[in-house]
Amino acid sequence: MNKKQVKSNIVMGFDMDGVIIDHSEQKIILAKNAGFNIKITQTPSELMSNLIPLTSYRELLNLLYNHPNIGMASPLMPGVKQSLAIIQKMNILIFLISRRKNGTIAMKLLAKHGLWPKYFNESNTHFVKEVADKETTAKKLGITHYIDDEQKVLNALISVKNKFLFDALGVFKNSGHVRVESWKDISKITCG
Question: Are the CB atoms for 85 and 184 separated by under 8 Å?
Fold first, then answer.
């Protein structure tokens, strides 16, 4: 960051898939092509992985995240740009920590949607291999607030004081984590 005053009490971390990028429609299409009918409310990874056999689910995710055309078709979650603009105006440090194996396609997808390099770039984006690597990276970066769509990831982020489950479809109402259902809710975290 340049010489702007940084709001030092918040350092935000974001997951990419399921938080910034909305893959729900693509998941329904890919599942159908593989012979599985799922509803939109079944597309979160924690639910979908229990509905589709592991081999088929891994193939589906491989197509979703690594196929240059399929992965690029997913839209942004509603309100992402507006909320990131608010967060940026507040000079809050932000980081993207994703388990994407193909960072190149992820960067192209972010660029397609106008987020790379305006909000995320090589200096604040980290692609890691495992859930445990998210914790290591979050700790190293001093993340104080992290938003992810998977409870198992949030459970692993021991060093992060404020963890939020992004539940855009409202399917995890009994989660032990603080839930946010939209990017408008995320904006409230930073303003509150």
Answer: no
